[in-house]
Amino acid sequence: MGVVPNQAPRGMRHCVLTRCAKRGFPPAVGICENQMVTQEKLSVAVIGVGSFGQNHARVYQELAAEGAELVAVVDADLARAQSIAQAHGGQAFASVDEMLAATPNLKAASVAVPTVAHLAAARQLMERGVDVLIEKPLAVTLAEADELIAVATKLGRVAQVGHLERFNPAVRATWQLLTRPMFFEVHRLSVFTPRSLDVDVVLDLMIHDLDIVLKMANSPVRELRAVGLPVLTGKVDIANVRIEFESGCIANFTASRISTERVRKLRFFQPAQYVSLDYSRRDVFSLSIKPTAGGTPEIVPFKPEVSAEEPLRAELSSFLKAVRERSTPEVTLADGRAALALALEIQQQMAEHQKRAHLDELMKGAAGLR
Ligand SMILES: NC(=O)c1ccc[n+]([C@@H]2O[C@H](COP(=O)([O-])OP(=O)(O)OC[C@H]3O[C@@H](n4cnc5c(N)ncnc54)[C@H](O)[C@@H]3O)[C@@H](O)[C@H]2O)c1
């Protein structure tokens, strides 16, 4: 059930009307987090509607009830932009320039072009007053990430990074179980598809888990060891990493994009407890050892309730909330930079390992799918 402005409590009515008038938004009505709130219409766009960006367009369309209005989709491949616009709404454009010229009231946009093109697209949008959700990884280099942070800060833009797993309901249900994780074992394995080949498996897949474990371990990295090999493509397709944090916590990560099966699992051990999280099945399970009156401790299983919300919907909804409220997004550019910095350090360690193992000469010029 929604509320119309003239039926809202007096305080809310005043606040809504003032905010709308201030920012030139027409008022709309919606429900957010089970509270009755009045929301402005927000015109949004998606830049890059390839295999992942098309999902942003679909979800913005679904978020119409929360005030989102998909006004534009942009893709260098205009036919692709047209077909996504036809399916989910908005006008199709072949470039950010053309789109900005035609949609002066645009408020927010998702940037889902290949990572190498994030900086150019996001900077252009922010300079024209548009808030951005930039897909992960934030950028290809730390210099690019720093430039994105500098532009967003200087212009006061709301800028979020698309670390989608933060919005996975299984991850959300796991925070309440965290006490002092000391050992993580993480597997993210995918069957090969010829996508995101502009980056290696660390920036493509492992970075999701780096972001989550950095948050859960909540401690600076002390040491890392890494091995990675290109197998099907010219870049590393399979990687294994061991990180030791200052707290003494250890994390082992395996990521592959050339596996025969799809696995998305994070398991951790902490005093008297084991926790297993399956990102794909959106399932969490824990075993704890508890003392009993009889003296023999018992093992107590627990399955926290996990909501059924689609992570991308939760992510975009949270982004739009930050845009409306001018608040700090749940996943900041600084978070994106931290995950990227760790990923780049892993790449360097992998390169050093290749040298130590005399693999670099062997792999120079190796043929790879592009
Ligand atoms: N959060 C996640 O779980 C997740 C999953 C997959 C991909 N991604 C990220 O999303 C981004 C896109 O990945 P993808 O797999 O969809 O790639 P993709 O190659 O399938 O799609 C990219 C699209 O962008 C278009 N494009 C390229 N340069 C452009 C430009 N300058 N302006 C406008 N359009 C342009 C291409 O024509 C293509 O349609 C990457 O950063 C990737 O890492 C995130």
Order of helices and strands: HEEEHEHEHEHEHEHEHEEEEEEEHHH
What is the tally of helical segments?
A: 11
Helix content: 25-40%
Average pLDDT number: 89
Structural class: alpha/beta
Number of strand elements = 16
What is the number of independent domains? 2
- What gap, in angstroms, lies between the N and C termini? 51 Å
**Oligomeric state of shown chains:** single chain
- Strand order, biggest sheet? 10-11-12-9-13-14-15-16
Q: State the CATH class of the largest domain.
A: Alpha Beta
- Percent of residues in β-strands: 25-35%
What's the shape? globular
Uncertain residue segments: 1-36
For this structure, what is the CATH homologous superfamily of the largest domain?
Answer: NAD(P)-binding Rossmann-like Domain
Q: Which sheet architecture does the biggest sheet show?
A: 8 strands, mixed
What would a concise description of this structure say?
The protein is built from eleven helices and 16 strands.
